[in-house]
Amino acid sequence: MLIIGERINSTRKSIDRAVRTRDVEFIRQEATNQVNAGAHMLDVNCGTLEAQEEPAAMEWLVQTVQAAVDVPLCIDSPNYKALAAGLAVHRGKAMINSISGETERYKNVLPLVKEYGAAVVALCTDDRGIPASLDQALEVGLKLVGNLLEAGVPVDDIFFDPLVRSVATNPETVLVTLRLMEEMSARFPGLHFVSGLSNVSFGLPERRHLNRAYAVMSMASGLDAVIADPLDRTLMALIYATEALLNKDRFCMQYIRCYQEGKLKG
């Protein structure tokens, strides 16, 4: 499971303030804490800034985080100019969050994917919005992933996001998401699947329980990357345990190592 730490996101007031004031130590500590907790990659987002300010802020954010930790970054913005600014200074192979079937988004982001050889989160949406049914979602997903492959993006670099919605307002969303991942996996062997766990619980109390349950259920249907809070020790322990049960952790070696390192304690 690829753990993408979600905490460096300016929708959090503390991160917004740190980015605006260029608080190097605060950002570095957030990055270090997530990597020490088990994150393999960090999502960086400063999208609350004005559009004209965001590219410079993203450049600073990428450089600041990579000065603190030796992991790749998932550069996250709806502003393709901010994506470009972050990619230009990123060391190693980055991930772009995200591309979609929306005409303008696809046109602006695909050249960046190819220029920088980046992995990319592929959102299951197009100009009509988020699909309303499994059939429509499958149609959108097949077209988007097919187009990326045709454009020369390796399947191993594509992380398909089925865009789970809140179960509070879409009671069948998780069941549809699981079916969608299974269908897409059968059509595109080697395709990765990623999800932002917190989307499923929006508007509900004690959200962490739903996020954790969704992660475990989704791993059984092919989810192999999450954008989540690695400081949630229970979530991380459940991920390690689920990998062992799904035979993705041979002889439970990772699980045992995590126990020895004290990572399985609540």
From TrEMBL:
GO function terms (MF aspect): cobalamin binding; metal ion binding; methionine synthase activity
- Family matches, as PANTHER family: METHIONINE SYNTHASE
Please tell me the species this chain comes from. Desulfofundulus australicus DSM 11792
A GO CC term assigned to this protein in UniProt: cytosol
- Key word Ligase present in the record? no
Which keywords are on file for this protein? Cobalamin, Cobalt, Metal-binding, Methyltransferase, Transferase
A single GO BP annotation from the record?
A: methylation
What are the residue boundaries of the Pterin-binding domain, all occurrences included? 1-246
Name of the protein in its database record: 5-methyltetrahydrofolate--homocysteine methyltransferase
Q: Which domain of life is it from?
A: Bacteria
Protein family per UniProt? Belongs to the vitamin-B12 dependent methionine synthase family.
Which InterPro entries has this protein been placed in? Answer: Dihydropteroate_synth-like_sf (IPR011005), Met_Synthase/Corrinoid (IPR050554), Pterin-binding_dom (IPR000489)
